[in-house]
## 1
Amino acid sequence: MLDVLRKHSKSWVIRILFVLLAISFVGWGVGDFVRSVGRDDNAIQVGEVKIGVREVQKEFDRDIARLRPLFGGKLTNEQARQMGLLDNTIQQIVSRLLVEEEARSLGVKVNETDLRRQIETLPAFQNEQGKFDRLLFQQTLANNNFSEGEFVALLRRDLARSQVVLSVGGMAHPPQALVDLLYRYRQEKRVAETLLVSAEAQPAPAPPSPEALAEFHKANAQRYTAPEYRTLLLLVLKPEDIAAEIKVPEAAIAEAYQQRHDEFSTPEYRVVEQILLADEAKAKDAAERLGKGDDFLKTAKELAGQEKDTTQLGRIEKRDLTPDLSAAVFGLAQGKPGAPIKSGFGWHIFRVTAIEAARTKSLDEVKAQIAQELAKDMAGKALYQLATKLEDEMAAGAKLEEAAAKVGLKTRRIEAIDAKGKDPAGQAVPDLPASERFLATAFATAPGADSPLVDADTAYFSLKVEKVTPPTLRPLEGVRAQLVADWTDEARRKAADAVAQQALERLKAGESSAEIAKRFKLALKTTPPFTREPEPEAGLSPQLAAEMFRAKPGEAASAPVKEGVMIARLVSVAAADPAKDAEGLNEQRQSLEQALVGDLVDQFTQALTLRHGVKVNRRAIDEFFAPR
């Protein structure tokens, strides 16, 4: 199964699977395995599997983090909820659990050999040469507070789930007529002439009067308003603060080394070449030639039609071959071809060109690594215990400062921070908790109140809002230079728009683009052929490109752009011919298949809902996510 996945790694299904695996691994962290402070209410139940509200919160935070760049880094938790992202997260969790339940009920299994091979193909565990690196594997897991067993269990579930989804998606076959139709629509190309009316090229207007500047300041008040700032008292509990003080006993290191002995052992590797022949007669002929000293690659070429690259098996270990072939290869002396061996693929003649002996790292070599990992594990447990004590103190009525002092922790004061994490000078406030919930908590907590202790994946934090400075319109004199620059820029843009309207009217009246360019001193350009989603080289905004696909040859339109206003006149239309683009047509088919698979999986999930049963505790979720 997994060999098929690797072979077809460029197909839509496999791309989806690998993306899901990558996102899952990047998103996993300490918070998934460190017990949360306080008791979770059940939020979701699928069959007999129950998910708590804090697990929903972690997935919600990860979804926000992935989407935030699309919103310029300004997407808050509350905005995400208003957009329905929380509901989407809940649905994703339900869908995942339903497929997992179905995989279990069908008895879908992932065997150990395929699972191990899949781990070795994940980019996160490969070195610069693209090879699996066990040390990197262990370091990556340790950095995310995973044991090997925990990670393997999660990956096993992902792969079992993917096999179920692949079986459903395999039924998606769009009709050729629909593929052709969509191809013609998306690949139709057009060419246009463009004229750019630059705002910067317009004459500078006379300086604004005091009255005009005051009116502009008032009309654009939001642009010149300082955001809300908050003064915070902050307490952060981080594992690294505790790990530095932990001394790991030598006996514990030695015990861990013995338990993980296989992890530090590297098997014997051999670099192998092979001649693969169809019948025994040719195999005997090849063996005879090689025995007389003939060149291995020359013999492969003449008798098997193999080029050099097809003879190279590369660097392999015993488990990469079937038992009979493995015994033959690992019994050969270096440089000497072996006797012909038959398998289901034909007759093999192997030659070993290099041998890397098996090796086990000594305790001294890995002692520092083991100590660091054990310290992290111990720190995680100590952190949870410390967080529990702190929460107990706060639950008993102690204020944040009092509770921190009782458990031996220190707080820090942030004098002014806005909802983007910046200070009044526009600089990012340093050393903030990495959690996406920090700023949301800071701006949802009432003035004078302490926030609850928040599980921030790799840490915990609590804060008190000491002061709130509401948004304030900056006085005109304080922003005069910026006001004048903005007023002047707007005046030039209005002038550019007026010129563009005159030019567009002349184009529509029949005057040529060249005449317009000369009359208004504009640069005339002809775009390369572009589609409905133009490449940057076309120089067209999406709005103007859409106008050109609504136009007939000779018609013109205009649209605002960053530099001012652009005018475009359609020159020609080139219809798309699917018969001349097999590769593009295949990409269109795969895109359509992906859409159909999405629909099939949705319907499959609905059917699984009836089979396994789903309960969503909206009360617990709404109470947990309600602004505090």
## 2
Amino acid sequence: MNYKLLPRLDLPNDLKKLSLKQEELLCEEIRAKIIETVSKNGGHLSSNLGAVELTVAIHRVFDSPKDKIVFDVGHQSYAHKLLTGRYKNFGTLRQKGGISGFTRPSESEHDACVSGHSSNSISVALGMAEAMKLSGDDHHAVAVIGDGALTGGLAFEGLNNAGRSGTNIVIILNYNEMSISKNIGGIATYLSELRTQDSYKRFKTGAKKVLGAIPVVGSGISKIISRSKDDLKEKLLHSTMFEDFGFEFIGPVDGHNLVKLEAALKSAKEMNCPVLVQVNTVKGKGYKPAEDQPGEYHGVSCFDIETGDKPAAGACFADVFGTELASYAEKDKRIVGITAAMKYGAGLNHFKGNLKERLFDVGIAEEHAVSFAAGLASMGKIPVFSVYSSFLQRSYDELLHDISIPRLHAVIAICNAGIVGGDGETHQGIFDVPFLTTIPGATVYSPSSFEELKICLKKALYDDDGLVCLRFPKGDEEPCDISATDSYYLSDRNSDTLIVSYGRAAVQAAEAAKELNCDILKLTRIFPLQQEIYDIIKKYKKVYIIEEGSRSGSIGEKLAAQAPNAVHVAVDGFVPTMTLREAFDLYGFSKDKIIELIRSGR
């Protein structure tokens, strides 16, 4: 596309100078730039295309960075990035050292907070609004949250506090009937049934203006009406749930009509009190393949712009898991699947046909999912909650309190375990092992291959009791000539050097061990560790532990306690945006880096 405005404007400063026609052209250019970049780099497409006009209107009405704009999840912030001086670098989106796929304060003063996970925006924005109120600052905090994220309990904790806070907080509810999968449940139904309440808004505003003009008594009557607005509303129409929380409510507003959007947001800003604006948008707006299949184009690797075609995807760990679990569920009615709005990414889309009634999508509510699983388990079912590693972090207390203490049998399938690449710090699955291994009675498997995954799933369902966690990486398996096992594998090359590893990194470690002619100890059940694992390690002169995860609280730390001279290769801190291969080289998990380390004698 021939970009006429994006390269020439000083954004966001020039945005408020544009005519409506120029605004509309700018929206076209933003969409084109997002499609062009995501088609090459991958990223979140549908959510960003649906929020273009909304983001333009927000920046026209509010004054960033003095007004704080908090994007829930942040996967709809690409237009925001283009409107805040990052056009020239936008081609580096989701690349090492480039523009993040989410908001990051280290990247721009216009990014109010770190984002990546859902449902926290209202709480964060309220904290900012309260801080401004305490400081005598009359600027606004604006939270942009989708109806999918509103299914998360944390969002309601924020609403509960924000509605009657007396702060300048504006919550923009971006309603598109989607999170990643189609939204379900009571909140989704409620929002879909909400209708415009302009009749009430017009009546209230008009009446106050007329009465206020009456000499002597008019202003007094107007104040009485203001104080009695709840009684007035009750007579005219039922109040919304959000008004019951204490918010002024505006909407629904057409989320692709710039004039209506700006009018609604200006009204919200002028109220100087907690306001919730419902904006209706179309996920994938402006790109037909994404509009037709918003879930399929929510997060993509790359695609052909003309056709929308994506490279054929091979088998992946999540699909192998889901297919195998569904086959067991066909034969065993006790097996129940649970997903937190991610049945495709978590492999549970294979629960179809007669299995649909045993698949529960609880929305973006990981804590609820685990407690729900506990209830199922207490009644003799075998619940299997499939969830991304980085999202399971939210459920730590429920794992301890609701499953572990009562010794209930539940299976947690942990997808995207380990390094995931382009999504950056908030999505790397490197912390599940440290926190899971603090839970008494937990069993944790980390298979390296599809065959091993199948073996471990059967063990988790039928042989183990209590909390059983089955963690596996994103994507395809890598060829490995080590036999599949549910315990551990030890080579015997009569070497005094041992490499210990598990999961995907074990494949690289095994290849390095073969080339170096040293021994490899590949773990599959990584917790609890058998005593014989410690006994094996003690026999070797040199021990190298390669662990694709966080060092603190890791399996490697436990093993190194018995082998003080062991070299432990793991992650310290957070893993920023980069490809899997770049991360494996940087952190020393690749075959070549392992060989280099051992040959150096360190």
## 3
Amino acid sequence: MLRILGIILILSCNSSPLFSQEEFNGPFPSWANVKTRFGAIGDGKHDDTRAIQNAIDSLTVAPMGFNIGKDAYSVVYIPAGTYVISSTLLLKGKIGCSIIGFDPEKTRIVWKGGDIDTMLLASGSAYFKVSRISWDASGKKQMECIGLHWMEKWKDKTSMSFATVNIEFSDLKFFGKPDFGIFGGTVGGGGVKGTGSNDSEVTIKRCFFSECSQAGIKIAGYNALDYWIWDSKFLNCQIGVWNNSGNYHAYKCLFIKSTFADFINRNSYYTSVRGCFSFESQAFSGDDGSSCNPFKRIFQGNKVIRTKGMPIQYYHVGRITLFDNLITKSLDTLHPFLVNQKSWCPVSYSMLSIGNSYGYAKQPLRIANEGGKIFSYSDQLIINSIPDVADFEKKMAVTPTIVTRKIFEVPFQATTEQIQVIINQAAKISGKRPIIHFPTGIFNINKTISIPAGSDMQLCGDGLFNASVIRGVNDSAFFRIYGPSYITMHDLEVGQFSSKQSSNSIFVFNNVDQPGSHAFIDEVYSISPNTITMDKLNFLLVQKTNSFFADGDRVIGGDLVSSGKGSAALWAFGAQFANVSVDNGGSFIAKDCWWEGNQRVPVDLKGKGNLSLDGIMMAPSKADSNPTIRVSSFNGRVSIMNGYIQGGLQIDPVNEQLKMLAWNLHFYHKMQPDRSIPRNTKAKIAFMGNTVQCFIKGDKQCENPTSVADVLVNIEDQAIFLPEMTADDRLAMPINIKGYNKGVSNILIYRVSMGNSQSAIVFR
């Protein structure tokens, strides 16, 4: 067993990734340096509060016409140094900006104020990023390092409050025993009074939380939703992630010796933990209280080693889903089981467990309520050696390294011809990853920019929204990229954001379908009807993450995919699933995202292929018992699991070649969803573990969740059917961004907003 001293040494150092397409290239001339431009000292002695605050206050706010033109800037840059602050830094009324340090090992902000305070408070700011900084609370009491709290709404001549969405906290380190490293949300039991709105769609990645006295991350409020937590490390915190009323999804995170639990939930709609590692914590996941609520808890591909207490405890009426976890025997000798589910609510109880390894040979899973059903397939006693924490950490994504590249600065208000000349010059530098940088400002182009095959360049700007803006082109693509290519694009806004529909595309990639090719789409914002189009591809794997405002994906398989021999697919984690289209054998797997809007049927399936939705919320503006999901005519597998459906489910009679699983769905308004199954159908359909609830005033029979009896249609053996229908979901687990592989396309697009084109990103 690895000693804890070794773990501390490992966690305190950066390690180099095996492959990474992400790197750090700043600062650029358009960034505002807090030392050279605002007089910060950064020597660990002088108080730099005013200098840093002045830099933040002067950030460009394009919608208000504040600080625009040649002197505009959207990035505050904090070079290496130790910066003392004595009062809260306030990021208020800003949009599309960033606060970026040189490196979290060398850029440190240290608190020298009093107790009960916040180091950085973000209120009414949107589409921003804070990255590459260490935050030291200096042992003061009741401190939060970063508070994301939309406190008030306002609008004046130079400033206004923006809905707090699409936010990134990355490569940050938290020390000095703060109560919280990051605290997001207002109202809803969090103790912070504010608007109660948003503070949502938050990406937290590659962060390090040390000895947080309450929690590394706290989420509070019914609208504090979609916290996607990636590759982050939690060392000796009381709680790793503490969620009250919102929701979160954690991927590939590491928890060491959490003194209370790695995850704690209260009134949490649906949460998921995928690919994480827990070592010697008190517990892995727990829920406060006991209720009739149908909360969803999803655990997939985790390794839970030697908890001191019971690893997973859940006391509500929703179902627990466990796929491919390894959970060793706990040190708790009073409770000889690893998962405990129970509640006082008079409904039926069930649990789904497939492909797990447990530390007990008999009854590792327990439903305390009488008559509970545990569907267990391919589970086994742990027979292999216990995995080592150091091996897991080596595979985590790390802070992008600082790399010096040839930089081509795009002149302010450059023409199409000037930009194309720069692109052509960069394309000639083979194998050296040159950078084409667009500073803050607007660039109007009148025809498509072409990037030749074999290019390995990076195009970047200064922010996701209202920073580096590329406009123009009405009837063709903004960028056409020829493959195979090794391309990175980030922190750009491309296209017109208006109600006028355009027939063009934003990015069109040609010849990118080589064996082993990848495209990573992260934190994108799109108002196009089709965000991603995979047009008859056989090999390209597209991973789309952290993208709530980006729907309408189209996945059309190529000839090999159609015959069952190709590998092309679109995997989405925390990325929108609405208006998806799958055909010709295409594969679409989406997990962990919330949809809301005016559309009556956001999922209407027609075509041929495989589709899985796992961990979802469907919340139309006018919710009633009418269908929200419709299977019009589909040949293939459809699995919809672990979700809330405000409305019904409709399956048309023509679906003779359909195989469908509906597991652990809670239907609001629709009290008999199984009636959607057509009579005398030839389709194979399983409705299992579902609950219903209505909101008819005075009708006590439907005000609390009620279980729906399991229904199996044309299924001879559920022990074969359930593993088959969950196979795609179990296969789709997040992968790290790949690096260069000659002759193979590797594409990375992150923090890019795309306007009203017909298709935002097209792969051919």
